[in-house]
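Re: [help] complex structure
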Amino acid sequence: MTLILDAMGSDRYPDPEIQAAIETARLFSEDVLLVGNETLLAPKLKTADPANRRVRIVDAPDILEMHEKPVEAAKRKPRNSMAVGLELIKTGEGQAFVSAGNTGGVMFNALRTLGRIKGVQRPALTAMFPTRVGHCVILDIGANADCRPDFLVEFAIMGSVYAEKVLGKSSPRVGLLSNGEEAGKGNQLVKDAYHLLENVGLNFIGNVEAKEVFAGEADVVVTDGFTGNVLLKSSEAVGKLITDVLKEEMSGSIIRMAGALMVKPAFLRVKKMMDPREVGAVPLLGIDGLVFVGHGRSDAHALVSAMKVAHQAVDIHLLDAIQTAIQDRLTQTEADSTH
Amino acid sequence: MTLILDAMGSDRYPDPEIQAAIETARLFSEDVLLVGNETLLAPKLKTADPANRRVRIVDAPDILEMHEKPVEAAKRKPRNSMAVGLELIKTGEGQAFVSAGNTGGVMFNALRTLGRIKGVQRPALTAMFPTRVGHCVILDIGANADCRPDFLVEFAIMGSVYAEKVLGKSSPRVGLLSNGEEAGKGNQLVKDAYHLLENVGLNFIGNVEAKEVFAGEADVVVTDGFTGNVLLKSSEAVGKLITDVLKEEMSGSIIRMAGALMVKPAFLRVKKMMDPREVGAVPLLGIDGLVFVGHGRSDAHALVSAMKVAHQAVDIHLLDAIQTAIQDRLTQTEADSTH
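Output below.
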């Protein structure tokens, strides 16, 4: 297979991307298409790996500057690295696209170049959250700030496929994020989505609160992109607050610092759990092509993690599986409405 | 002053409430009205404190059972402890009401018995969150799952008064919880509220994400009750997940347990920060009377914390301050609309 990496996405582009492309090509013994401004990339690639044969630069002369509004800039600069990279999926030259650039920019370019899977109204940014007992899939975590209830049903279907294929869950338990476990609790969107989710042939376990999510009682958690983003960001922020306070407290005395050294492995486990660098990248499910978004702050290590996630998605035929599940849903809905 | 305590609210009522009432009366050398089923309470109070003179039972013969839907049950049982207790505020026999009962039940009874401060469309459950550098006020954390933008303006006004009076902040920085710091980010509610908040005479600092909230960059954070509840519950859940994992890791070997002992003070600080028992209770701001809601799981210690919060609110004339601020807003709005 051939993976496509946007060379111009991360905060410190293109150096982390160049490094990550080289390592990924080496890791899988496969070609990697590195997309970006060739004049900038070619000499750097040569220096980084003179013997390189697998990383191929695809020229995208336009550069989206960090200060520019991403969507507006993408419109004015059609030969930007996201547009060009996504085009390679369309032509079949590559099977998955990874970018550490602006999420809105990736979404816009992905919708314009690849479009949505037939039957999906909105693509969803899909995260893997650590839980007490493993991981769970949460979507949407930021692509759509306002949703209709039927969007959430599509999120549930796509999320279930993702959990099945990536987490190996045979009948993923789908929870609807709410402010109480009891049916009937929630805002209007959640109340309406609840009724739809009961009848969609998924393993719907009802409403879940954050407590159940982190306890690992659901494999898939469905929510609108605004709420999902708050859930994501508050989890990260509390994790950071706690570790900052602990570090501060533990540098207070020699005894404490000695104690801290002894418990360091425990901290490393928590840190790893919470570390976006480990995650690498999140998929934009519902796009008609495999598209992954990484953190702007990604270093080479994080980008390699991202490329591994993309590689696995191709390996497990994720796109086909989602297209099939959504198509089945469409067929079912049509059958239901003719009765 | 006289505080009013719902004797029938907590999961293990009325024993924690009886204990808390006795301790509170002793602490402040003031009377406490303990509201609930007299037949149940009188003998227990006598046993707990034979010499008691300050805790006075006010009979409320109806009991709201835990399995009953709170609002529906409150309608059928008008002489329940919440209704009777809140009535005592209305008659002036008490100045603040505390209950560890169901939040929906308290809200319903408070609206029915005391009503809203003129000019407040929706009362807001208002929490005090720990931050890196102190605390911040967050509302609404669960009273209103769906909000209109003008509700959020009222939350901002009430929250500012609360931050000023309770946190001692002279010009509280008000942030609007969003999924990005840039103006224009957010769902439709947030985008609309943003414009209103810019022109309301508060120290509005714009959108904030969870990161800024926990870093202490705002004194007041405004959001709808559904999102606020997700923020609250996910913070608690992540805190619990981290401490559970750390405990588990640190009981893994003798060395680690020794290390854990040494760093225990650091953990206690974090635990205290995150502990609802320390908080005690949260006010329902916007009700025409001082009403506080505690955790169902509250023990006597937590209930005493709750009573202290209520006591302080009376001391600092919180209700007057909120009424004045809201009235000023009403006057300003009328003045603006006649131009």
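Chain A has two domains: 1-120+286-316, 121-278.
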